[in-house]
Each structure stands twice: as structure tokens, then as C-alpha cells.
TrEMBL record, chain A:
Alphabetical GO biological process terms: respiratory electron transport chain; tricarboxylic acid cycle
EC number of this enzyme: 1.3.5.1
Listed PANTHER family: SUCCINATE DEHYDROGENASE [UBIQUINONE] IRON-SULFUR SUBUNIT, MITOCHONDRIAL (PTHR11921:SF29), SUCCINATE DEHYDROGENASE IRON-SULFUR PROTEIN (PTHR11921)
SUPFAM superfamilies: 2Fe-2S ferredoxin-like (SSF54292), alpha-helical ferredoxin (SSF46548)
Domain named 4Fe-4S ferredoxin-type: residues: 146-175
Gene3D superfamilies documented for this protein: 3.10.20.30, Alpha-helical ferredoxin
Official protein name in the record: succinate dehydrogenase
Record flagged with keyword Iron: yes
Xref: InterPro entries: 2Fe-2S_ferredoxin-like_sf, 4Fe4S_Fe-S-bd, 4Fe4S_Fe_S_CS, Beta-grasp_dom_sf, Helical_ferredxn, SDH/FRD_Iron-Sulfur, Succ_DH/fum_Rdtase_Fe-S, Succ_DH/fum_Rdtase_N
Keywords, sorted A to Z: 2Fe-2S, 3Fe-4S, 4Fe-4S, Iron, Iron-sulfur, Metal-binding, Oxidoreductase, Tricarboxylic acid cycle
Organism: Pectinatus brassicae
Family, per entry: Belongs to the succinate dehydrogenase/fumarate reductase iron-sulfur protein family.
The keyword 4Fe-4S is annotated on this UniProt entry: yes
GO molecular function terms attached to this record: 2 iron, 2 sulfur cluster binding; 3 iron, 4 sulfur cluster binding; 4 iron, 4 sulfur cluster binding; electron transfer activity; metal ion binding; succinate dehydrogenase (quinone) activity
Automatic annotation (TrEMBL), chain B:
Topology class, membrane: Peripheral membrane protein
Catalytic activity: a quinone + succinate = fumarate + a quinol
Broad class of the protein's primary localization: membrane
GO BP of this protein: anaerobic respiration
Record protein name field: succinate dehydrogenase
One Pfam family, short name: Succ_DH_flav_C
Molecular function terms, GO-annotated: electron transfer activity; flavin adenine dinucleotide binding; steroid dehydrogenase activity, acting on the CH-CH group of donors; succinate dehydrogenase (quinone) activity
Length: 250, 585
């Protein structure tokens, strides 16, 4: 049908990590509630550009399609966000898709975020339990503190906040808002707080919280609405206190 | 003594739990996953995890949990296995609590409990409406600790292709492909655990993640592993229909007081409450899904004549909803545009979970020595229908069994010799040859279009209502699709991050698995749990109180179906009804 409504995509593509990026444009049939992942799936079914040239399907990463897994983060019309939760009706056309270049590009929109998982090792992002066997019942928790933990524990390591942060990139070692704030989560836990000093000391090192420039970009883009700047400020206070303590305990 | 060397395929709740148990026993794990394990599909589980905590003054018992699970599964689950799971559940919750899962708490700071379908007592522990995400993260964190200690090596963005057996037929390794570099490698192990999740994507649109394609299960089935009870596919009654996927609207909505209704004679009709006064909106999923189907398809009473009914939370205070169901209400607003705190949601049933899977014994051994399976990819615990909030439980629990059992294999003489260099090389070469053949495919079919057709066909014939004539047609259709698979054209010829070629390989496995679901459904001439045949509306214990076993026939590509007795010695089968309170024990 010639008069069928379509959605215009301009996609930044790249065949390999070292090759030059290029753009290709696609027209995808419109339907109500169409999201960016569903549009990319249409291109898989018919990998033909706007000009009728046969091409290869666009490569990107996705799993859950309901904004819980964090896989499909990409830059859409200039903003880092989850492709599955981006409805075409809510953004202007043509829709520009690009990989989040804060991270190394693997192919097309697919990026390598392994650095984020490495940072979770550095901040000791776990509660040090003796084992998975039966020990004691865990301590009861203030339900208000537990609610804060629940909020931070929604972080899906998608990388939106790193992409938006001006201090994450080749010019700095900053590990970024997401992994930094995860240390606050474990410090809140009644068992996790036993290792609070270790985590705070880790944040004093190169690339730790002193690299945060307080630009506030992270909290704007967090798809889970985690109050990142609030917890970064709290951590900053905790780190300063710990630094003083370290001096006096020398 | 050599190190115990175990391969775990799949990093969801079950694979991670098994990994932890193996590390605690001093074993080393190579952990393979399509994705960073933190992005595994377990995180889509929303409503909670069942465990008899008995903190609501209801005298709840593990036996009652056991009985509800067996009854809910229409007596097709292995009872010794289920009993073990229910008895261990409270201990697992304490473990997760110690690991820092931010469970929702009561005012005095202890774990809160909510109602769930098919259970009269409050037994569901939860973390808001993102329980799976929170449980998965806790295990992901613990596995990261073991990774730092050097006992876990992750192979993320690797796709499992097949197992390798030694001369005695013992599984002693796998072949896998790096999804970026496309390199194919063979790996040796003392034992292999598959924890690769469900096959939902065979049905196209479903509530599953795109990675839940059942491809790994199909691959080992084609190498001789038996599949059990594959016809039992859970249709979740309340999902948001979508063009790319159906998004789950948790059973917790009904657990927290949500009501299902549609208009009849111009007035709201709360049909679940009318049809099933004893359980009302909290009937199990198979019952609720069939009722919604009946109201929409047979009675034509869906909203505006479409296949939709209301799931209504708008009578519940917004503050309460926020605390108990926060995450998923946002999801509904985000993907649909309406606020469920103010207007009723519109939902329809969707393919959700597979009760069936690789046949395993109570220790999670498959019929292939040293190959184990746990989590949704196995057939254990749920019988003919799974109760809500029992899947996170079975996933975690099964990992606590399969992990130590893999260690037992690694210490046993039964595993025989490790793979020879020649065996490893041959297995690798076979996978390389297969992949190169796929890359070279130049036919006219598009793999994703073909997959769409597969999903339509399976949704039409193998879901809520099954009719033998239609199942015969379906099998014919599946053979046609398998034939057309040979005529696929692969447009991407690259040897770098070639998702299209990998999908073509997965698709063939999906078609073969679809045949197992279809044929098992065709052969079971009764109605039980999620398997409903109007031609045979009653349960037939005399003939079908048996596990369906499917084995692969490479000549026909179809399964050979047989039936196997199982352990139902503890609770005598009785009629399953939800219009009246559940009868005696």
C-alpha cells in the first residue's frame, strides 16, 4: 500500500569495532504502540533501506523488552535510553539511533559494557555471607531503609547514566554513577555494612567518587528514577568522614 | 586429585544457584550465557516466591504448600520432588534475606507475605513487584564474589550449541560459539548442567525474553535427552497484548485485591468470582485463562468485542498499590498510556511458562550420564499447571540440587575417561561446518518471517484449547516450516557478531521442539491442568496419570511418545475443583 503510514529511522551503523561508522535509513510500517525494538525487529524481517537497497539486519542487544534487563540501551534522538520502552509516538521523526559511544562499539548499536560489571567487583558489590547454607535468620530491617534499598536495587546496569555523565570517558577514570551508588546499597544492608569501610576506601581511589563533577545529568536519564545524585551526595559525605577517620586512626 | 570442573549453561536463578553450590564445594565453574548473567530472564518474574513462613497467623504448613502445589498441578508432579522443594523453601528465603534481597517488609521489619493464586494462605514473599529481578541480582552478586576468587569463569555472549559425549556415552563437554567473534570452541568438563530456561519464543509473542528460545533443550533432545510433559504450556491469564511481546501483568495484582471483569448486559460482570466462589479472582492460571478465553471467544463478551477483559485495581488506595505493586503499574502506564491506579487495565492471556522440559530424576539427572538440567528447562515440580510464585522457588531450589549432584558426578568413577583430543576436534569441526553451511544459505525465505509463522501456528493450535484435528494440521504445518527452513537466505555473510546466522540455527531447534509440544498434546486424550481438550473434557487417571516422555526420531524429525510412571505415593489424586474449597488431604 503506497499510502501506508511509515516511521523514518536514521541508524548509525558500524560493521566492526575498528571500522568507520556510516548511516542507513529505513522506513518501517507504523502501528499504534510501536516501540524502537519492535521497529528494529521489522527491519530484521525486511532488511531493505529507504532507497530500496538490500542490506543486513541491524545488530543490537535486547532481552526482556519490558525495561528490566537493561540490555537495549542506545542513544535515541540524542538521548541514552532503553529502546524497548521508547514508543515512536512519543518522540520526533526522523528517529536517529546510535550506539552509546561511551562504551566500545561491537557492531552497529551493540556495545561492550563489561567495564560496568568490573566496577561492581571493585566496590565489592555483594553481602559477604558465610555460605548459602542455613545459618541464622537475617536481622529484621527498618522498612523505610529497606524501601530505599529496594529503589537502588532496581539499577539494571544499563549504562544510561555513564553515557550521560560528562566525567565518564577517555579523559577520566570515573567508574560512573551506577556502580558508585551500588556501594551505597550494600552499605545500607545490616550485614553488608560490615564492609562499609572497604567500599568507602575503594571510592577514595582513582576513578572513585572524587571524579564525580556533580553535573546532575545521571539522575535526569536514569530509566529507573533512582535518585542517583542524592545517594552520590550521601556517599560523598560518608567518604569524607571515612577519610578523616583514616587520618586519625593512623 | 584434579579440580572438579563443571560447566553450567545459563545464568538465570537456577544456573547461578548451582554455580554457588559448586564453588562452595570446591569446584570450578565455566558459566556460559547468551548475555551478562545479570540480564537473564529470571528478572522478569514479578509477584514473588512461595515459602511457608507462617507469619500471618494462619497456621500455614509446608505440607499445605506441598498439597496446594500437587493439587494445582493436577497431580502430575513427582511428589517426593515437590515435597522436598516445599520443605526447603523457608530456608531459601532466609538465605536470600542474608544475601541482601530488599524484600518488602511489614511495619515491624519482618518479611511481608501476600496472597497468590491457588493458595488460601498468605505464602508469597515478595520484593515489590520485581521479586525475580531482586533474587537474580542477589545471586549475581554472590557469583561475582566467586568470580573474584577465581572459581568462576564467565563466558558471557557465548551460545551453547551441543554437548559432547565420551565413548561410554557420558556427557563430558560442550561446544559453544562466541557471539561476537563467531569462534566456535569445544570445552571439556566433568559434568554439565543445563539451566537454559523456557521455550516461550517458539510461540512468537509471549511473556518471555527474546533469549528464551528453547534452542539448547532442543539440541540435547536431538542428542538423546528425553523431554517430559512438553504439552503442558502455561498460559498466563493477565498479560498486556503487544506487537513485539506480551508483557506480563503479575498475578500479584489479583493477590493484592485486583478483580477481573467485563461488561454483560451493560453491567460489570466479575465472572471469576461468579464461576469460582471459593477462590474467586485467585483461581490458578489455567482456570483463569480458560475462563477469560471462554468469555471472550465463546460468549463474545470481550471489551468492545475484542479479546480483552479488565483487570481492575482502581478501587485500591494508590499509596498501597505503589508500595506493593509499584514497578509493574509504571510499566503498564509506560507501554499502554493509561494509569492503572485510575482506570482498569485491559489484559488477555498469553503463553508464559513451560511446565514440561528435559526429563530429570529427583537429583536433576537427565537420562544422559553427567548431563543435568535445572530451572524452567527441566520438567520437574509443576505437573500439569504451575502455581504462581512457585517458579522462582523451583528455579532456585533445583540449583541447590543440580549443583551438588554435578559435584558428585565429578568425584565418581562412572564418568569414565575425559574427551580425547580427537573427540574434541571432531565436535568442534561439526559445529563449524554446520555454521558455515548456514552462513552460505542463499534461499528466498527470511528466518524472522518464518519464525513469525511458527509462532502464529503454535499459538493457534497449542495453547488454551487443543483439538486433535487442529493438532494434526499443526504437525503438518510444522513439517512444512521445517522444509522451508532449508530455503532460508542469510543476508549477513559476516563472521563478526552475526545475529542473523545464529538465529537461523536457533530457529531449526525451535521448530523441532515445537513438534514435541504438538505431538505430546495430540497424544494426551484427556484434560488436565493447562492441557484442555473439549473432545476429552475429563481427567483420565487410569490412562494418563503418567509422565509423557518424548525421544527424538532423526528419521522423521518427530518425537516418539511414551508414558512413564512417576511417584504419586504421598497424596492420593482427587478431583481438582476451585468453585468449592479444596477437599481433604
Amino acid at each position: 500500500m503506497a499510502d501506508q503510514k511509515t516511521v523514518h529511522f536514521i541508524i548509525e551503523r558500524q560493521d566492526t569495532p575498528d571500522s568507520k561508522p556510516y548511516t542507513e535509513e529505513f522506513l518501517v510500517p507504523y502501528r499504534p504502540a510501536l516501540n524502537v525494538v519492535a521497529a528494529l525487529m521489522e527491519i530484521q524481517k525486511k532488511p531493505v533501506t529507504k532507497d530500496g537497497k538490500k542490506t543486513t539486519p541491524v545488530v543490537w542487544e535486547c532481552n526482556c523488552l519490558e525495561k528490566v534487563c537493561g540490555a537495549c540501551m542506545m542513544v535515541i534522538n540524542g538521548k541514552a535510553r532503553q529502546a524497548c520502552a521508547t514508543l515512536v509516538d512519543q518522540i520526533s521523526q526522523p528517529i536517529r539511533l546510535a550506539p552509546a559511544r561511551t562504551f566500545p562499539v561491537i557492531r552497529d548499536l551493540q556495545i561492550d559494557r563489561s567495564v560496568m560489571f568490573e566496577s561492581l567487583k571493585r566496590i565489592q558489590g555483594w553481602v559477604e555471607v558465610d555460605g548459602s547454607w542455613e545459618v541464622n535468620t537475617a536481622p529484621i530491617q527498618d522498612p523505610n531503609v529497606a524501601a530505599t534499598a529496594y529503589e537502588i536495587s532496581h539499577c539494571m546496569t544499563c549504562g544510561c547514566c555513564l553515557e550521560a555523565c560528562p566525567n565518564v570517558g577517555p579523559q577520566s577514570d570515573f567508574i560512573g554513577p551506577a556502580p558508585t551508588v551500588q556501594s551505597y546499597l550494600f552499605n545500607l544492608n545490616p550485614l553488608g555494612k560490615f564492609d562499609k569501610e572497604k567500599r568507602l576506601n575503594a571510592l577514595m581511589e582513582k576513578g572513585g567518587i572524587t571524579s564525580c563533577g556533580n553535573s546532575q545529568n545521571c539522575v535526569e536519564v536514569c530509566p529507573k528514577d533512582i535518585k542517583l545524585t542524592t545517594y552520590l551526595a550521601q556517599l560523598n559525605r560518608d567518604v569524607n568522614k571515612q577519610a578523616l577517620k583514616n587520618i586519625f586512626n593512623k | 586429585m584434579s579440580k572438579k570442573n563443571i560447566i553450567v549453561v545459563g545464568g538465570g536463578l537456577s544456573g547461578l544457584m548451582a554455580t554457588i553450590k559448586i564453588c562452595e564445594a570446591g569446584g570450578e565453574v565455566k558459566l556460559f550465557s547468551y548475555c551478562p548473567v545479570k540480564r537473564s530472564h529470571s528478572l522478569c518474574a514479578q509477584g514473588g516466591i512461595n515459602a511457608c513462613m507462617n507469619t500471618k497467623g494462619q497456621n500455614d504448613t509446608t505440607w499445605e504448600h506441598f498439597d496446594d502445589t500437587v493439587y494445582g498441578g493436577d497431580f502430575l508432579a513427582d511428589q517426593t520432588a515437590v515435597k522436598g522443594m516445599c520443605e526447603t523453601a523457608p530456608k531459601l528465603i532466609k538465605m536470600f534475606d542474608r544475601m541482601g534481597v530488599p524484600f518488602t517488609r511489614t511495619a515491624e521489619g519482618v518479611l511481608d507475605l501476600r496472597n497468590f493464586g491457588g493458595q488460601k494462605n498468605k505464602r508469597t514473599v515478595f520484593a515489590g513487584s520485581t521479586t525475580g529481578q531482586q533474587l537474580l541480582y542477589a545471586l549475581d552478586e554472590q557469583v561475582r564474589k566467586w568470580e573474584v576468587k577465581g572459581l568462576v569463569k564467565k563466558y558471557e555472549f557465548w551460545e551453547f550449541t551441543n554437548i559432547i559425549k565420551n565413548d561410554k556415552g557420558v556427557c563430558r563437554g560442550i561446544v559453544a560459539q562466541n557471539m561476537n567473534s563467531m569462534e566456535i570452541e569445544a570445552f571439556r568438563a566433568d559434568a554439565v548442567i543445563l539451566a537454559t530456561g523456557g521455550p516461550g519464543v517458539i510461540f512468537g509473542r509471549c511473556t518471555a525474553s527474546t533469549i528464551c528460545n528453547g534452542s539448547a533443550v532442543s539440541a540435547v533432545y536431538q542428542q538423546g535427552a528425553e523431554i517430559g510433559n512438553s504439552e503442558f504450556i502455561q498460559i498466563h491469564p493477565t498479560a498486556i497484548p503487544g506487537s513485539d511481546k506480551n508483557r506480563l501483568m503479575s498475578e500479584a495484582c489479583r493477590g493484592e485485591g485486583g478483580r477481573v471483569w467485563t461488561y454483560r448486559d451493560g453491567k460489570p460482570w466479575y465472572f471469576l468470582e461468579t464461576m469460582y466462589p471459593a477462590y474467586g479472582n485467585l483461581v490458578p492460571r489455567d482456570i483463569a485463562a480458560r475462563a477469560i478465553y471462554d468469555v471472550c471467544v465463546n460468549q463474545g463478551l470481550g471489551i468492545n468485542g475484542e479479546n480483552r477483559v479488565y483487570l481492575d485495581l482502581s478501587h485500591i488506595p494508590a499509596e498501597y498499590l505503589e508500595r506493593k505493586l509499584g514497578g509493574i503499574l509504571e510499566m503498564y502506564s509506560e507501554f499502554v498510556g493509561d494509569d492503572p491506579r485510575k482506570v482498569p487495565m485491559q489484559i488477555y492471556p498469553s503463553v508464559h511458562y513451560s511446565m514440561g522440559g528435559i526429563w530429570v530424576d529427583t537429583k536433576h539427572n537427565t537420562n544422559i550420564p553427567a548431563l543435568l538440567a535445572s530451572g524452567e528447562c527441566d520438567y520437574q515440580y509443576h505437573g500439569a499447571n504451575r502455581l504462581g510464585a512457585n517458579s522462582l522457588l523451583s528455579a532456585a531450589y533445583s540449583g541447590t540440587i543440580s549443583g551438588p549432584e554435578a559435584i558428585r558426578w565429578s568425584e565418581s568413577d562412572e564418568i569414565g575417561e575425559e574427551l580425547t583430543d580427537a573427540q574434541v576436534a571432531a565436535a568442534k569441526q561439526a559445529a563449524v561446518d554446520e555454521f558455515e553451511k548456514i552462513i552460505d544459505m542463499n534461499g528466498t525465505e527470511n528466518a524472522h518471517e518464518l519464525h513469525h509463522e511458527l509462532g502464529d501456528l503454535m499459538n493457534k493450535s497449542c495453547t488454551i484449547v487443543r483439538v486433535n484435528k487442529e493438532l494434526d494440521e499443526c504437525m503438518k504445518g510444522l513439517h512444512e516450516i521445517l522444509e522451508r527452513w532449508n530455503n532460508i537466505g542469510v543476508s549477513d555473510k559476516s563472521h563478526w557478531a552475526n545475529q542473523e546466522a545464529m538465529f537461523v540455527r536457533q530457529l531449526r531447534n525451535m521448530i523441532i521442539y515445537a513438534m514435541v509440544i504438538c505431538k505430546a498434546a495430540r497424544m494426551r486424550d484427556e484434560s488436565r491442568g493447562a492441557h484442555f481438550k473439549p473432545e476429552f473434557p475429563d481427567r483420565n487417571d487410569e490412562k494418563f496419570l503418567k509422565t509423557t516422555i518424548a525421544t527424538y526420531n532423526p528419521t522423521s524429525n518427530e518425537p516418539e511418545i511414551s508414558y512413564r510412571d512417576f511417584d504419586h505415593s504421598l497424596i492420593k489424586p482427587r478431583p481438582r475443583r476451585y468453585d468449592v474449597a479444596k477437599g481433604g488431604k
